[in-house]
Amino acid sequence: MGVKERVALITGASRGIGRGLAVGFARAGAQVVVNYRKSREEADKTVNQIIDQGGRAMAIQADVSERKDVVRMKNEIMHNLGRLDILVNNAGMNRQNFFWDITDEEWDLLMKVNLKSVFICAQEFMPVMAENNWGRIINIASVSGQYGGPKTLHYATSKAGIISLTQGLSRYGAKDNILVNAIAPGIIKTDMTKKELEGPMGKTLVEGTLVKKPGEINDVLQACLHLASDEQNYITGHTLNVNGGIYLG
């Protein structure tokens, strides 16, 4: 069955990896909720792409770092679809700055957007999943959360927090057949990173992988689909690295 006929919420799905995940889950047969924070126009592009390919999708605006927004989104999903089976916590942001130059405001912003949002969404949606004794939560972390990127220390710390939170959530979800895992992507080529990857720093990063190339959104998608599938029932609390062997390069 994979994810066919499942209801999946992808946060931050109006562009980039989030859009690719939403389209991919719909192509695999899931009914997809496209979450976005700001741009309804971009979210509609994701929804229209899904519909054009014969899939089913709806867009819901919510700032997932704000509980009142998440509760409103949950109520809308339950009213329209009746359940939620799969939650992919993809929404996030990055700000490059050396440790000495990170402000309190920058630190708090990344912790709120990247980490607190995962906590809130899990706390609101796990009881919904428990009602059906089935659920899959996939948290998008980052390789940065495993090595402490020197120019993105606040981002790296927030992603490391996601990995730890994933482990804790897996303990709470197990009794209700809710499996919780994380994916830690490395260098992934998107419309937003394409220009950076073509520059000197990007080329250096790519050379640091074993495979000497950036990853594709489809690489992250396939990992997500596996962890979300009802064909796997024994992986939880795990962080799956999708990084081209960057640790060994």
Your description of this structure?
The chain is α/β, with parallel strands linked by helices and 249 residues long. It has one domain: NAD(P)-binding Rossmann-like Domain (Rossmann fold, 3-Layer(aba) Sandwich). The protein is 47% helix and 17% strand. The protein is built from 9 helices and 9 strands. The strands form 2 sheets. It has a 7-stranded parallel sheet with strand order 3-2-1-4-5-6-9, sandwiched between helices. Strand 2, helix 2 and strand 3 (56-61) form a beta-alpha-beta unit. Helix 1 (16-27) packs across helix 9 and helix 4 (104-130) runs parallel beside helix 6 (153-173). The radius of gyration is 17 Å and the shape is globular. It starts with 6 loop residues before the first strand and ends in a 7-residue tail after the last strand.
| Most strands sheet | 7 strands, parallel
Helical fraction equals 40-55%
Q: State which percent range the strand residues make up.
A: 15-25%
Shape: globular
Strand order of the largest sheet: 3-2-1-4-5-6-9
Q: The CATH topology, please?
A: Rossmann fold
Low-confidence stretches: none
Cα end-to-end separation: 37 Å
What is the assigned CATH homologous superfamily? NAD(P)-binding Rossmann-like Domain
**Average pLDDT taken over every residue:** 95
Count of distinct structural domains? 1
Keywords:
single chain; 249 residues; alpha/beta; Rossmann fold; seven-stranded parallel sheet; globular
